[in-house]
Design the sequence.
């Protein structure tokens, strides 16, 4: 997944017109906004949830069908590209241009070979330089400025051992078929960023990223597979040549999340792995000894387990890389799913990991992207998820690389981490670590959600002692300190039982009174005798927020996102948004009727709603849905704590 931040940014900053502007969203599951791109752009599927307007000339989809030649079975090292490409014309041309350059063949210095199992074990924990060199059309085009070396120092200081560097080449080609020349300045920039990482002794995995859907999508009907293979070989030959002399800290990943619908697509993706290996080996230098992380369809655990076949005939040590953003509704805040952690939730994650490990018992496996973002997931549920995912991945010898789009985890401007507790569990936990965690609702059939990651006190009510249920997991509480610098006294300020921690009324009264203005009043940092979790619990004074207006006429606000100024009443986040027409029909996703009470009729973050520091936002897509339904719709914005889905919620009506 590469898009979470981009979606948020685009939704906030771009007015989506009847014609979608360049790089705007133009489709995807749950999206019902404009689908026609502005002149010169065309709508291309990035993943099931996100289609984007990209420059029309760059996409392969307009090229008419050519029958693909199936992969030869004689793809041994040293075999000419003629066996990999469909036409002798191409083969001759490409063979002529692939002659290894002296740069690649005369690397200065030596290479310390490393096995794939060692490389993979050493790279954990890893961090992704998301939405940066992969941004389209160029680095800096999305929400991150061009990366600077100090960012990697911050990443290393936090305890990460590797950086995955996603790179999109799509808009950096200066030549076309058959050479597909890549802008040398761009190759140099990629090389320079890799040097920033390796000079710190960090491992890195470098890839070809959004090219997967921009021009290398083998699932598109009419895709010119010959062109994709030719371009892919030429791209990796040039990248392989540029990076041929890099140390063994540098691994290559052929392509990010290649779209794949069926076994035929998967066969072609297996072939792309082979073409990639051929290209980097032809480029020479140290590449024949370099670790590679090969990919299956979508870098999805199921498609990879079903259809991935390792190429034969190359000497490169290899691992398999896959990505994991599951369950989708929790990770992407879809359909009001703000809880995680039931036995069934855990069993699903574990069986997903086991499926891949079970199919590839002797192959090192890298989880190259996962993320429960502090921007949109509830902290207690998030910490349970991170703890469970990391420990169980490590238990199956799967190394993990955190996705970070620049808005999720590291604030690159200040060098601070937005959720230090997740980072601590990611960087320090082991397979056997038992982390102490705030408990929270796990049962999706309830109407009320509670969480010990926050100590909620309602405005206008007396301050009384409050209990925070905790999962101590065998550890004991050793210290509570608060954001005023005080260390809390056991007995006077709090007490501990086997099931939780109780803060006394006298302690809470130091921070709160019935009249305290709503907001986050103080933080409590908890330390335990064991484990790597050190949760920060927010003391929150809350009352129901108010909106500056409570209705609008849909037709008069259509075509753009609608920002509604809000006076927040505690945490400055939206928990969920319900959308029901005045006829009682769910505006979108009527299947949510089968979900629990906190999920019914709920919409999806970023597709239908969003927020910023002073507004809640209905997306143009949500407004379009109302207009096409032709019925006045009530949007109910819900906040934490979620109380019966009714209290601590406000209505906004879009009339037709
Ligand atoms: C497909 O791509 C190949 C290689 O770039 C090219 O020679 C051929 O003309 C293309 N076919 C069509 C139908 O465009
Ligand atoms: C291998 O993958 C297939 C397809 O996803 C799955 O059905 C099977 O259970 C997996 N095998 C093991 C041993 O995990
Ligand atoms: C929102 O509107 C619905 C439908 O009229 C109503 O049942 C609900 O109580 C309202 N909620 C709030 C918080 O006003």
Sequence:
């Amino acid at each position: 997944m590469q898009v979470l931040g981009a979606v948020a940014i685009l939704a906030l900053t771009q007015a989506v017109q009847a014609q979608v502007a360049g790089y705007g969203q133009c489709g995807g599951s749950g999206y019902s906004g404009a689908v026609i791109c502005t002149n010169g752009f065309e709508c291309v599927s990035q993943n099931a949830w996100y289609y984007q307007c990209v420059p029309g000339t760059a996409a392969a989809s307009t090229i008419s069908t050519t029958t693909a030649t199936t992969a030869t079975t004689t793809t041994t090292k040293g075999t000419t590209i003629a066996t990999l490409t469909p036409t002798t014309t191409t083969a001759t041309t490409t063979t002529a241009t692939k002659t290894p350059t002296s740069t690649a063949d005369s690397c200065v210095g030596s290479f310390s070979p490393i096995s794939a199992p060692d490389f993979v074990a050493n790279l954990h924990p890893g961090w992704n330089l998301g939405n940066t060199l992969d941004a389209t059309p160029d680095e800096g085009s999305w929400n991150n400025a061009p990366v600077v070396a100090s960012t990697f120092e911050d990443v290393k200081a936090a305890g990460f051992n590797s950086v995955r560097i996603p790179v999109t080449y799509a808009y950096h080609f200066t030549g076309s078929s058959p050479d597909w020349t890549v802008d040398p300045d761009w190759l140099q920039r990629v090389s320079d960023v890799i040097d920033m990482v390796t000079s710190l002794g960090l491992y890195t995995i470098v890839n070809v990223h959004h090219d997967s859907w921009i021009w290398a999508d083998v699932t598109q009907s009419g895709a010119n597979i010959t062109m994709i293979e030719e371009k892919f070989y030429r791209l990796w030959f040039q990248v392989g040549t540029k990076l041929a002399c890099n140390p063994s800290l540098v691994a290559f990943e052929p392509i990010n999340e290649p779209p794949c619908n069926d076994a035929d697509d998967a066969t072609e993706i297996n072939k792309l792995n082979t073409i990639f290996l051929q290209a980097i080996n032809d480029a020479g230098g140290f590449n024949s000894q370099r670790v590679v992380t090969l990919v299956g369809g979508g870098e999805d655990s199921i498609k990879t387990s079903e259809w991935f076949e390792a190429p034969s005939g190359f000497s490169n040590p290899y691992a398999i890389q896959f990505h994991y953003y599951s369950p989708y509704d929790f990770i992407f805040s879809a359909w009001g799913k703000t809880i995680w952690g039931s036995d069934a939730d855990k069993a699903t994650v574990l069986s997903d990991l086991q499926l891949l490990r079970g199919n590839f018992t002797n192959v090192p496996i890298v989880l190259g992207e996962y993320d429960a973002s502090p921007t949109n997931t509830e902290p207690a549920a998030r910490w349970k998820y991170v703890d469970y995912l990391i420990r169980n991945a490590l238990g199956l010898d799967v190394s993990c690389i955190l996705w970070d789009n620049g808005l999720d985890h590291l604030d690159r401007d200040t060098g601070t981490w937005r959720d230090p507790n997740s980072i601590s569990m990611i960087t320090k936990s082991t397979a056997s670590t038992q982390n102490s965690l705030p408990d929270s609702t796990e049962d999706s059939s309830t109407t009320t959600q509670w969480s010990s990651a926050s100590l909620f006190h309602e405005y206008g009510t007396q301050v009384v002692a409050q209990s925070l249920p905790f999962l101590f997991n065998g550890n004991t509480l050793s210290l509570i300190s608060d954001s005023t610098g005080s260390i809390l006294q056991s007995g006077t300020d709090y007490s501990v039982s086997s099931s939780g921690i109780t803060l006394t009324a006298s302690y809470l009264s130091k921070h709160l009174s019935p009249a305290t203005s709503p907001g986050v009043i103080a933080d409590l940092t908890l330390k335990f005798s064991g484990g790597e979790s050190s949760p920060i619990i927010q003391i929150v004074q809350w009352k129901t927020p108010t909106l500056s207006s409570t209705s609008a006429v849909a037709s008069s606000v259509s075509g753009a996102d609608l920002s509604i100024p809000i006076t927040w009443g505690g945490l400055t986040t939206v928990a969920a948004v319900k959308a029901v027409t005045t006829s009682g029909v769910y505006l979108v996703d009527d299947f949510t009727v089968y979900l629990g009470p906190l999920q019914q009729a709920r919409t999806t973050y970023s597709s239908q709603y969003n927020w910023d520091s002073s507004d809640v936002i209905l997306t143009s897509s949500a407004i379009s849905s109302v207009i096409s339904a032709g019925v006045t719709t009530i949007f109910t914005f819900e906040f934490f704590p979620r109380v019966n889905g009714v209290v601590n919620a406000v209505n906004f009506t879009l009339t037709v």
Observations:
- Residues 356 and 475 are 32 Å apart (CA to CA).
- Residues 263-283 form the longest helix (21 residues).
- The first strand starts at residue 19 and ends at 20.
